[in-house]
Amino acid sequence: MPDFGKAAYGMMYPGYEKMDYTIESGYYVSTTGAFTNSPVGWQSIKVKCNPGDKLRVTVKVAGDSTAMAVFFNANGGYLSYLNRGANGSTIQYTDYEFTVPNGAYSVAISGNAFSPIRLERFESLSSKIDNVKNLTRFFETVSATTVTGFYMKGTGALTTNVPGWHSIKVPCSPGERYRVTVKVAGDSTAMALFYTSADAYLSFLNSGSNSQETNYVDYEFTVPSGAYSIAISGVSNTAIKLQKSVDLPSKVKSMAEGQVGNYWSGKKIVWFGTSIPESGYPQIVGTALGANMYNVAVGSSPARAGCHGNITSGDPLGWTGAVWQNVAYSLSQTLAEKEELITNWDTWKTKLTGSPPTTLSETEMTKIRNCSYENKLVANHLGEGKRADLYVFDHGHNDNWFWNATKDELKVSPTDQKDRTYFIGAMNFLIDLILKDNPRARILFVGHYENQYPGKTQISEAQQILADQWNFPFLKLWEKLGWSQKTVQTTGYWDASGNWIESGGPTQTLTMTQIWMKDNLHPYSTKAKQLIADTIVGFMSSLR
Q1: Is 382 within 8 Å of 433 (Cβ atoms)?
Q2: What is the CATH number of the domain that holds 325?
Q3: Helices 526-540/281-289 angle, 10° precision
Q4: 240 with 166: CB under 8 angstroms?
Q5: Are residues 187 and 239 in the same domain?
Q6: What interhelical angle do 362-370 and 335-343 show, nearest 10?
Q7: Least confident of 51-60, 130-139, 426-435
Q8: Taking the model in full, what pTM does it have?
Q9: Which secondary-structure segment (H or E) carries 435?
């Protein structure tokens, strides 16, 4: 008997899973949606989907009559296509990710018959938990006697002693779930025939075809109303395997409903940080967990309010010499400090770097005010009815890169533990606000994705010091992703649209961070965000 506990546990994690489909040899789907017979060199699949589904495909496409994916509406009518082929060349798509468009309820994939087709759908943690909770069966093989010949579609009669064919017939009940492996050919046959309790022919499922063989592998179906026996017929060079679903032990059902339950479903999570999390992986985490995710990260935002080493009598927060966005979007500044910057912009813009604008627009002034902790944290996420179930801090990068250029402050634990002109002091200040509102608040630190880049090693070191002081959960991404400064030679390259192409470019030497991020800083690509999100979700699965 299978290890049900292990199987259920494995279903906890979000990610792509292979879809159920049957490969049709000798056919491709044109850019107009027509299934076109082409006996040599082509194969295709067609599966049901829903608008918004995230799919991932591996396929080799050639010829401008074809496309990587063709979409159909709910009635089976042609809708649109994605990534048309080209005459005179082949295009290899490997783990290519795309979203099913509005109005599409099935998708066809066509490609070279000598290269594998693989289609996968992204399953969030919430959907997987639902699957586990609904998992009340597994399949076991049905014992049956094989006879030579096939059962005739339309009449149900057994045509005996036909070379090259074999069949089975077994009792069943309406509503039972089966799966079958069989190869079907010929329009006089069907994958399955159903009979009444009086053994009268009732109906069939999946007709055969004179022009092609169809290989069904673990094809699942439900016995229709009024059916009390099933006949399966197929080509005798492929074994028939029929399996019936059976109830799982109650122990596994209990585990699915309890131990594997999604703790974070419906809970509020607030995510503070820089342009790195602003890129979008917190939203993926929220979707996977079924949580209400508030990604309030802002590009160029540091935690600290200024630079202690730059403080003077005329600059009490040490803003002079900093990039203007680092000052404007600081999280730990008060509203009064934001107003000082806005009101006296004509003076401050001459002291800041990074090409400050001549004037601040109303939109920019609103953004600056909203970056104050008084708005971003206190007004929206503290207090009765507004508190979060988890506060995530993904800060550090912007507290280092410009503020710390000529100062060694990032790792300093200041004498005044809540001195906001230090990174650790600013973080202590923000954490203190949260704990004053709720002493049992849950807080998570997310560490930087690497710890080797020259001039940035102190980011992870400072984050470690902060985590050691508080003993809150700390996910060291730099230990999980493999995004090091080690170099490899590759012919892969980034295209103009920000997609990583695995091969075909000139040989170049790149670091691992360059291979995962086009600008060597932001995880903008879908795969980079997904890897970070999957890592965080795995970490949070045991977090309470």
Answers
A1: yes
A2: 3.40.50
A3: 50
A4: yes
A5: yes
A6: 150
A7: 130-139
A8: 0.59
A9: helix 423-437
Q: How many helices (H) and strands (E) does the chain have?
A: 16, 30
Residues 147 and 110 grouped into a single domain: no
Q: Residues 6 or more apart from 129 whose CB is under 8 A from it? A: 11, 12, 260, 261, 262, 265, 290
Q: How far apart are CA 536 and CA 538, in angstroms?
A: 5
Domain boundary among 247, 278, 295: 247
Mean pLDDT of the region 190-205: 94
Could you tell me the CA-to-CA distances from 26 to 45, 111, 157, 280 in Å, in that order?
Answer: 11, 10, 30, 41
Using DSSP's 3-state secondary structure scheme, residue 189 falls into coil
Residue 256 clears pLDDT 80, i.e. is over it: no
Total domain count, the chain: 3
Q: Is 326 within 8 Å of 402 (Cβ atoms)?
A: yes
What span, in angstroms and rounded, lies between the C-alpha atoms of 235 and 164? 6
Long-range CB pairs of 365-370 (<8 Å, 24+ gap) are 367/328, 367/329, 368/328, 368/329, 368/338, 368/341, 368/342, 369/335, 369/338, 369/339, 369/342
The residue range of the domain holding 197 is: 138-247
Is the predicted pLDDT of residue 132 greater than 60, yes or no?
Answer: no
Q: In this structure, how many other beta carbons lie within 10 angstroms of the beta carbon of residue 333?
A: 27
Q: Which residues pair with 493 in a beta bridge?
A: 501
Write the CB contacts of 524 (distance below 8 Å, at least 6 apart in sequence).
279, 498, 517, 518
Distance separating alpha carbons of residues 407 and 405, to the nearest angstrom: 6
In the listed set 134, 154, 181, which residue is the last one of a domain according to the structure? 134
CA 449 to mean position of chain CA atoms: 18
Domain assignment of residue 224, yes or no: yes
Q: Are residues 365 and 232 in the same domain?
A: no
Count Cα atoms within 13 angstroms, Cβ side, for 479.
Answer: 9
Among 485, 400, 421, 480, residue whose Cα is nearest residue 447: 480
> Considering the domain boundaries, does residue 495 fall inside one?
no
According to the model, what pLDDT value does residue 255 have?
45
Q: How far apart are CA 204 and CA 216, in angstroms?
A: 15
